[in-house]
Amino acid sequence: RKEVEQDPGPFNVPEGATVAFNCTYSNSASQSFFWYRQDCRKEPKLLMSVYSSGNEDGRFTAQLNRASQYISLLIRDSKLSDSATYLCVVNKNDYKLSFGAGTTVTVRA
Amino acid sequence: EAGVAQSPRYKIIEKRQSVAFWCNPISGHATLYWYQQILGQGPKLLIQFQNNGVVDDSQLPKDRFSAERLKGVDSTLKIQPAKLEDSAVYLCASSLSPRDTAFFGQGTRLTVV
Question: Given an 8 Å threshold on Cβ–Cβ distance, is A32 in contact with B48?
Answer without folding.
Answer: no
